[in-house]
Amino acid sequence: MSVSNLLTSRWYGALFALTGITLLLAALFYQYELGDDPCQVCIHARLWVSAWAITGPIIFFAPQTFAIRSAGHLALFIAGAGLAERALYLYRLENGVGDGSCEFQLGMPDWFAVDRWLPWLFEVRNLCSYTPEIALGISMAEALLGIAAALTLLTAVVWAVECGAWLRQDERAL
User: Fold this and answer.
1) Chain centre distance of CA 61
2) Contact 69, 149 (CB under 8 A)
3) Helix H or strand E encompassing 60
4) What is the pLDDT along the chain (174 residues), one digit of tens a residue?
5) DSSP code of 39?
6) CA distances from 29 to 32, 121, 144 (A)
7) Contact 131, 140 (CB under 8 A)
8) How far apart are CA 123 and CA 115, in angstroms?
């Protein structure tokens, strides 16, 4: 299987599902084992990561049509951009560059009250200040920003490759 076939196949969805699940497990480890409670913006980041973890299996199991894969790419791209924005916000806050703060409430509407439905995963328990160091002096915000940028770029490249292949196929049909 070539790299382009791998990235445009069901395994692309599995990559995002595993990435999302791994990031959520890491966040829960830091929260429950190391005592680094999440702030409002951290929970927003978890929501975007959860979108990856949910969209990945949908892409994996859904029929492999161009329209469904494109919808999946769009969802992954939006989630990646949302995660990058939240990670950048956190990075700026922890480095004293940002202009903003956060609250102890998640701020979601009643019809999407994930903090009440799954408090062990989405409950705000801290105010924004800093994110813990992961390794080698890299903070969680910096790591999230890098991961979000890399996976969003990967999504854009794979989507562009698929669109190009679809357009070439469409030209042959004419």
Assistant:
1) 19
2) no
3) helix 40-61
4) 444 454 555 677 788 888 889 989 998 998 898 888 888 888 889 999 999 889 888 887 888 777 888 888 889 899 999 999 988 888 888 877 766 667 677 777 788 888 888 888 888 887 777 777 888 888 888 889 998 999 889 888 888 887 887 777 755 544
5) -
6) 5, 11, 15
7) yes
8) 5
Domains and CATH numbers, the chain: 3-173 (1.20.1550.10)
How far is it, in rounded angstroms, from Cα 7 to Cα 136? 30
Q: Which helix (H) or strand (E) holds 103?
A: none
DSSP letters of 157-169? HHHHHHHHHHHHH
**pTM of the entire structure?**
0.83
Residue 96's φ and ψ, nearest 5 degrees, are: 70, 15
Kindly write down the DSSP assignment for every residue of 112-133, as one continuous string: G-HHHH-HHHH---S-SS---E
Residue 62: closest CA among 4, 2, 5, 9:
9
Q: In this structure, are residues 41 and 145 in contact, taking their beta carbons and an 8 Å threshold?
A: no
